[in-house]
Amino acid sequence: MEGQTVNDFEIKRIIGEGSLGPVYLAEHKFIKKLFVLKFLPDSLYQNPLIKEKFIKEIAKIASLDHDNITSVHNVSSCGEKLFIVSDFIPYKLPVSMNLGEYLSTCSERLKEKEIVHILKEVAFALDYIHTQSFMKEPLFHGGVKLTNILLQQKKEGGYTLKLSDLGITTILGSDYILNLAMENVVKGSKQEGGGHHQKRCFTHTFGFLAPEQRFNETNTPSYKSDIYAFGVLAYFLLMGHLPEGFFPLPSSVYKKSSINWDRIVQAALMQHPSQRPDNLTALIQGSMDMTPLEEVVIPKMSPLTPEKDREEALVLSSENKSETKNSTEILKKGTQHLSLSSQVGELSSSISEFEKKLIGGLTATAVARPMKMQQTPITEKEELQNISLEPIFKGKSEVRSYKPEKIATDGIFPILTDTIEIKAGVYERGSESGARDEKPRHSVHLNTFKMDIHPVTNEQFLRFLLLMEGEKDDLNNDIILLRESRIKRHSGELTIETGYAKHPVVGVSYYGAKAYAEWVGRRLPTEAEWEVAASNGNVKNIFPFGDGIERSEANFFSADTTPVMSYPPSKNGLYDMVGNVYEWCEDWYEYSYYEVSALEPDNPKGPKQGVYRVLRGGCWKSLVDDMRCSHRFRNNPGTMNKTYGFRCVSQ
After folding, report:
1. Distance in angstroms (rounded) separating the CA atoms of residues 589 and 610
2. Of 224, 481, 489, 605, which has the fewest Cβ atoms less than 10 A away?
3. What is the rounded (10 degree) CA torsion for 242, 243, 248, 253?
4. Superfamily of domain covering 416-650
5. Angle at the Cα of 126 (from 92 to 590), degrees rounded to 5?
6. Strand 613-616 to strand 633-635: parallel, antiparallel, or no bridges (unpaired)?
7. pLDDT tens, 461-482?
8. What pLDDT was estimated at residue 248?
9. Which helix (H) or strand (E) holds 116?
């Protein structure tokens, strides 16, 4: 079809083979923009039931909007053919690249930081998809695999990921997808080279399907099928091959990793859908416990019940077992399935040169990690992922109040921020459609409090540092990491980088935020106070400005902080409640705390102890989902990077 014109699109070339068949790159005749066209096969188009379902489901998918999902613009027809028009995602113009192609260009296995980056972006997209529903039916991708994950190069370096072909497997059914892949194998075997590419595509298509998608009539495919595919993806990135049979766990290779990879893989690959986790982002964050796998004692898996704490339930057995059925057994039903199963064993053993190369390079070498009890510089790549590979702070769990020593200040006084009063009352917090740690939505009673109208700025915090004459408190906790902030020390003197005086201070630890708040006679907000202030006390406000948010309303998915009050205030007069910087709260974090908070609604102050402190509001590099008022985040109280700041409250 190269050179042909289809409606308003001029087809340039074929760029790949998708679930529907050939994928074409086309240019719109008038706006001169590149798009991807995917045609519905004739065999499906002639089935009126599938055609009707296709049109209905694609309309739902086209309404989704997320930075990690390829946008579908419309479905059009040309004569007797239907085709989908979606974004063209370039890696390096004019070339596109999916994750499978990218991995084949790598001469060695990926570093852990890059694997975390890939998994977090895929998790962001899937968690967003799973929160969407139409006619009370939750959405799910249904076909997550290497070829459906596209790379888009960023101007500042690195890349972001986009999920494509959302819902295609769900619409067409896994039977059709597998049979189509098998047909391609048969065709390819007759060509020169024996169809090795087609065999690999079939193996990966089959390998990423959850047990309930592999012709299993016991459980219906759902969003939990995506969780399983995510587990396969994580395992493949780590180990270089699909998890089949009694597969070795990642800890057999990543012996000194600070990330509990076994937990992620085992949780996602549970045989029964109900035993898989609900939220992938929470699974990843909860597995970054900064404790080497060799030092972790993982109890045996016990049956999951709704009453059990979710995070406890995700700590799974470390035995090298898999409950996944043998692929031949799964494909037994029906003559059509028998014809497939007779070839699955042969195809599963057909490993590409890329996989052999990866497996050959998987030696049990030590994976570098930061030294314990030491803050190390955070690279741009680590900042991009908002992860901390620093060890858990192992000092006292209770933070002692800090009171500056009475010394001669020579006129050093705080620059106080104006405040907005939030009236006492009963408010709702949490979300029934968000992450699992945001549930259940429940009522809380808060006393009247006053909140700073904007986060603390560099010029405000500088005065505190001048008073302190150092960057540590009396417990030797770091207050701020200057290399991560815009405040610098030159020849013993503290200065602010030019143009950043009015920007929010960053690189501040929880200890530094708490100490500053006490110096100015204020305190850090509780998590409940922060959320009520962000939503203006209206639970219908998913974002501070309503049920949506625009780039003109907050600083997110950008390259740097902006001066405070650069964006319009929310209805209660507060600026930058979301975006710009994550803000430290007073509360300890606990995954299932809201279940307790619902029973103790009077001025909740969080768990009495914990490992992490709560952070709220997203930051300048966050995605849209982090901008939600109910979104919860956390990290070690000693963590300091370019995305963490704070604001104060008072009674």
Report:
1. 6
2. 489
3. 40
4. paralog of FGE (formylglycine-generating enzyme) (3.90.1580.10)
5. 125
6. antiparallel
7. 999 999 888 898 878 889 999 9
8. 92
9. helix 112-130
